[in-house]
Design brief:
Blueprint (H helix, E strand, L loop, with lengths): L2 H28 L4 H15 L5 H16 L37 H14 L9 E5 L2 H14 L7 E4 L4 H11 L3 E4 L4 H11 L3 E5 L12 H11 L4 E6 L20 E8 L14 E5 L7 H8 L5 H5 L6 H28 L5 E5 L9 H4 L8 E6 L5 H18 L5 E2 L9 E5 L10 E5 L5 H17 L1
Parallel strand pairs: 2-3, 2-4, 4-5, 5-6, 10-11
Antiparallel strand pairs: 1-7, 6-7, 8-9, 9-12, 11-12
Helix pairs in contact: 1-2, 1-3, 1-11, 2-3, 5-9, 7-8, 11-14, 13-14
Length: 465
Amino acid sequence: MEKNARSECDELLFLCTSALRRLENFKKNNKISSKILDETIVAYQKIEQDFDNSSAEKLRELQGITAAILASTDWQSPSYAHSINSKAGSQTGKIDGTINDYKRDRHLDAEQYERAFRASYIDAPLRLPPNVLVTSSGMSAFTTILLSLQLDGMIDGPVVAGVSTYFESKLILESFCREHLTYVDEMDVDALLAAVKKIQPSVIFLDSLCNTETIAMPDLTRIITRLAKEITRPTTLVLDNTGLSIMYQPLKDMPLVPSKLTLIVFESLNKYHQFGLDRVTGGVIWTSAISSCRLLLWRMHFGTIMPDASVLALPEPNRALLENRILRMQRNASYLTAIIDEHLRVQKKSPFSHVVYPGLPTYTGYDWTCSKKFHGSFFVLAPKSHQSKIVLYKKFIRRAIALAKKHRVDLVAGTSFGMDTTRVYLTALHADKDTQPFLRISVGTESIATTKKLAQIFIETIDQI
């Protein structure tokens, strides 16, 4: 069996058996007799016994049903005591009055996932376990952090942000911080440090892999190491790690001894952590065990916790399988970018000049990205001219989809990344003020044979344009 097929099979089997085990335990522990529960268990058993090409889509459909079943007996306001009948469903006996008896504040399903996320996905050697909090989306994670810092008095000075910070985060920062915000080039470590020394910011916002036309991938090892040594006032580094996820572990770059630098990390759970199922929105925040920012308290008051049924729709964390999945995307991105970039540099009449991808030797920061295992799962086709580039991008998408249909290769026009199927998308179309719109290709987990077909489709699209 081809390695890619074997990895995909392992992944699907994990998703299947994990959900099946949860349903069987739910039925056993709650002594429930339900037709839909029994039918769902049988459906999983059939998939487990006989995988085929439709298994992934069947699992995706069942995942939403499974989450609804697991939450079906529970209450958003569960009782913690009762005279005759409990109003806590499967969580009877686990509810503490005024602690977790209102799920808008906190709930057991979130806490269980947070513990599993911490154990599987965060490397914290020789440290107290980090605090992990799930939120309703990646953006609600960002706003929870920003407002928590403000309400705890930790935004008591200037704010610095990378110029390639995600455009929606920039929009909020520009409205929230107004005259106190300074942008820096996160790809220039010396310039960034010089700005920090001069401005003395209270908070710094950076992305580990920027979702922009330049796909900035800053040298965070150097940045964090030097920040920890050189800052002279308490400073919080807020890091959006959505683009690199588990493939970058920022705690490894933080000093073991206490310093004036505090780290808060967040990412969207819509991308890699759902193994391509894309069932629900979600976000996650984590920070060191000793933190002045009361994120748990403020998340409770903001009501930004991830709902119970949404948490239950997330696959159980599995570090080995997620890393294998991400590395398949790395392989596909490396192949596509090398082939397409070479073609663009030879094809002088093409409206695109080159491919932007941190894994290419021509990338601006290749001196530090070359040693990384993962360079992201998306790349950008850079236009030669900014005139009518929106028209160019839309034309590319239409023709690429038409050619893929002609050659019977699955290709999707749609947002996001980290999915099974490669996607093409006109990104940040309505964000001209903060980010230039760009054409993004987000690779999937396809076999190398399919990836080669996609390369030819993209090259043919370029030549036709």
